[in-house]
Amino acid sequence: MKIRELLDKIQQKHALIGVIGLGYVGLPVACMFADKGFQVVGVEIRADRVAAINAGQTPIEGEEPGLAELLNRVTQNGSFRATTEYAELLSADVILLDVETPVDDTDHKPRYTALKAACQSLGPVLKESALVVVESTVAPGTVDNIVRPLLEEASGKCAGRNFLLGVCPERVMPGKLLANLCSLSRVCGGGTTETSDLMIKLYRHVVEAELDATNIITAEMVKTTENAYRDVEIAFANEVAKICEANGADVWRVRELVNKSPYRNMHLPGAGVGGHCIPKDPWLLAYAAENKVPLKLIPTARSINDAMPSHVADMVAAELTAVGQELPGAQVAVLGYAYLENSDDTRNSPSEMLVAHLKEMGMIPVVHDPWVAEYQGELLEMVRGCAAAILMVKHEAYRHLDLSAMRAVLRTPIFVDGRGFYDPETVRAAGLTYRGIGRG
Predict the structure, then answer these.
(1) Contact 372, 339 (CB under 8 A)
(2) How far apart, in whole angstroms, are the C-alpha atoms of residue 192 and residue 395?
(3) Can you say whether the dihedral through the CA atoms of 55, 61, 63, 65 is positive or negative?
(4) Which residues pair with 224 in a beta bridge?
(5) How many CB atoms lie within 10 A of CB 384?
(6) Which domains does the chain carry?
(7) pLDDT by residue (tens digit) across 34-81?
(8) What is the pLDDT of residues 349-398, one digit of tens each?
(9) Which residue among 157, 223, 280, 394 is the active-site one?
C-alpha cells in the first residue's frame, strides 16, 4: 500500500475524488471538495439528474442556501462533473459511497440493493491503493460483513493490502446541507488506524468541526445510536403530549418549564417523524442486535412515533363528528407534505401516512405544499369547501397564513395544529375551532 503517496496527493489536492450517488449527501459533498480545489467525478444512475447537474442545475429543491451557486461554480470551472459510467472512476484515488440504505416497511430490516450494486460496479474499476469511504448510514457490521466482501470479490483486491476501507457517516439534513457538512463534527472509522488518520486529513479540507478517529464498527454505532436516541426522546415527548391532551394541560408550556431545570432537554412533540434518517436508523441499530439482544425501548419508540399521524386523523374525526359532520366524503385540507419545513423532501413523510389514515376513514384529503410540485397551488382556492384544515409542516409560507380568510373558505371552522405552530388564541380569534397536539 502506498499510503504516504495517497496522503501527499490528498494534502496537495491532487487526489481525484469519486462520489457515488448524487443525492442529498453526495451532491453537496462533491461540490464542496471540488470547490476546495479537488477534481471530482460524481456517478449517478439517473441520466436526467446527471444532465441537470452538468448543466449547473441542482436537482435538489427547497431552501438550500448556497448549493445552487456552488454547483454552478464548480461545473463551470470544470472541477466537478457527473456521469452514469463507473469506468470514469478508474483513476479515482478516493471514492465516497453516498447511496440510499432504506429499511423494509414490513420487517424493518435493511435493504441494501443500491449499496450492493454500487460495490459490485465499483470493484472492477477500483484503483490500487485507493481509499473507499462509506458515507451512507448503515447497520453496525455492514461494512465488514457486506461492503468489504463485495468489494474484494468484485475487484480481486484485498482491503487493507490493496485498498483502504473506512466509514464516515453523513450528518446532514435538508435545508442545511452545506452548513451541516462544514460545521458538524464527523466520526472517521477506518479499517486500520492509518486509514482513520488518512480520512481525517481528507475531511479536514471541508469540515471545520472536530474529526474523531475510531474503528469501523464504532463509527457505524455512533450514527445509528445518535438517531435512535433522538427517536426515543421524541417518542417520550409525544407520549407526554397525549397525557396533556387527556388531562387538559398544555405540553408546550410543560416542556418550557421542564427544560428550565438543569440537564433537561425535552424534545418537541408533533404529528409524526419523517425523513430518511430517524424513521430508519433506529431499525438499523436494532438489526445489529438481532438474535443477540432482546429490544424493547427502540421498537416501542418507533411504534409511538409512527402512530402520531393516526392520532392526528383521530383528532380530526372527533372534531367533525362533534359538529355532526359525517366522515365519508368529507374533504380535509392537509397543509404540508414534505417531511421538513421549507423542503421538497417527502421521504417517510408523516403527511403521507396521515393521508392514508384519512382515506381509510372515508375522508377525502386535499393536500397543499408550496415546495412539492405535485401539491402546489393557490392555498385558499385549494382548500375551499373543506370541512377541516390540518397543519402538518411548519413551512414559512404558512407562518403568516390569513386565518380569517381560511375561516371564510372552510365549510366547517375546524383547524388542527399538528406542530404547535400557531397560538391557539390567535386561531380562535379568527373564528376557527382550534385543536392541537398536546393541548387539552
Answers:
(1) no
(2) 45
(3) negative
(4) none
(5) 16
(6) 3-224 (3.40.50.720), 307-436 (3.40.50.720)
(7) 999 999 999 999 999 999 999 999 998 878 999 999 999 999 999 999
(8) 999 999 999 999 999 999 999 999 999 999 999 999 999 999 999 999 99
(9) 223
297 CA to centre of own chain: 22
User: At residue 1, does pLDDT exceed 90?
Assistant: no
Tens of pLDDT along 327-347? 999 999 999 999 999 999 999
Sheet containing strand 94-97, edge to edge, reads 80-83, 39-43, 16-20, 94-97, 131-134, 164-167, 186-190, 211-215
Tell me how far apart the alpha carbons of residues 111 and 298 are, in angstroms, rounded to a whole number. 19
Q: Note whether 167 and 219 are within 8 A (CB).
A: yes
Residue 277 designated active-site: yes
Work out whether the CA dihedral 299, 304, 309, 310 comes out positive or negative.
Answer: positive
Name the DSSP class of 127: P
Amino acid at 17: I
SS3 content of the chain, % helix, strand, coil (to 5): 45, 15, 40
- As a residue count, the chain comes to 440
Given 119, 168, 188, 277, which residue is catalytic?
A: 277
- Residue 31 is a catalytic residue: no
Cell, residue 349: 413523510
User: What letter represents residue 51's amino acid?
Assistant: A
Q: How far is CA 331 from CA 38, 193, 271, 361, 372, in A?
A: 54, 60, 19, 11, 20
**How far is the C-alpha of 24 from the C-alpha of 20, rounded, in Å?**
12
| Integer Cα distance of 218 and 368 in angstroms | 42
In Å, what is the CA distance from 75 to each residue of 12, 29, 34, 176, 178? 21, 14, 9, 21, 17
Cell numbers found for residue 59: 436537482
Determine the number of helices (DSSP H) and then strands (DSSP E) in the chain.
19, 13
Cβ neighbours of residue 141 closer than 8 Å, sequence gap 6 or more:
217, 220, 288
The pTM (predicted TM-score) of the whole model is 0.92
Is residue 198 scored above 90 in pLDDT? yes
